[in-house]
Design a protein that fits this description.
mainly alpha, Multidrug-efflux Transporter Regulator, Chain: A, Domain 2, 5 strands, 3 domains, three-stranded antiparallel β-sheet, two-stranded antiparallel ribbon
Length: 260
Amino acid sequence: MNTVTVEPPTCLNEAVTTAVHPLRLTELAERSGLPVRTIRYYQSQKLIPAPSRRGREAMYGEEHLERLHLVADLRDRGLPLGTIRELVAGDRPTRTVAEWLGVDATLRAPWSDDRPGSLTQDELVALVERESSGRPGVIGALHDAGYVEPSTDGGWNVPSPALLEQALRLERAGVDVDVSARMRDLLRRRLAKAVDDTVKLLVERAGAGFAGAGTPGELATALGALRPIARETSSVILAQEVERALAALVDAGPRSVRRR
């Protein structure tokens, strides 16, 4: 299993070389590069500590500047303010953020090696001639079924190269493209529900067995170990269910097979 290593935001790793003297709000805005209204909003949302006071004037220091840099970095990563507030609320926000980013990277890592691709017109024609039956109209059928989509440069976008190749092999074996597309959509609908329920189960059990009371790093390791096992298990179960369904069809007799 590949270990996911995520570095904390840059501002968390760099030591401050110049001491930050007490700053007025306008000076903090200039140093941080954020508008005054944004800093005030972050303060109202408890994303930065409350300022100290010099008479009636609010004064800010090094911790405020570092926190603003941290919030800006997390915003650039696409985190909503509610999540950022939870991450920086503790006594050690640096460690919390770094650990969360490690788990987040594990959760967002792709579970499939099949990524969208593209083909030129000539490449698609060659692929169809090589992998399919060679009957006319196959490319049009692939387009209608969503296996390929026209691109602006005259070529084709391929949402799933693996599914495209499987559709072509099935077409060569006598299974029409529209039938394979219906199979694809049926399996996706049913598997999506099963996967949603499985993920819900794992989340619910996170504190009672699965990962126990482990640290975020240990949870990331457990999820990483789950990745190949989940893929293999789903393949085994799918093969077993296909075997069961075909056996039931045969047991029903020749008339049932022909009718279906």
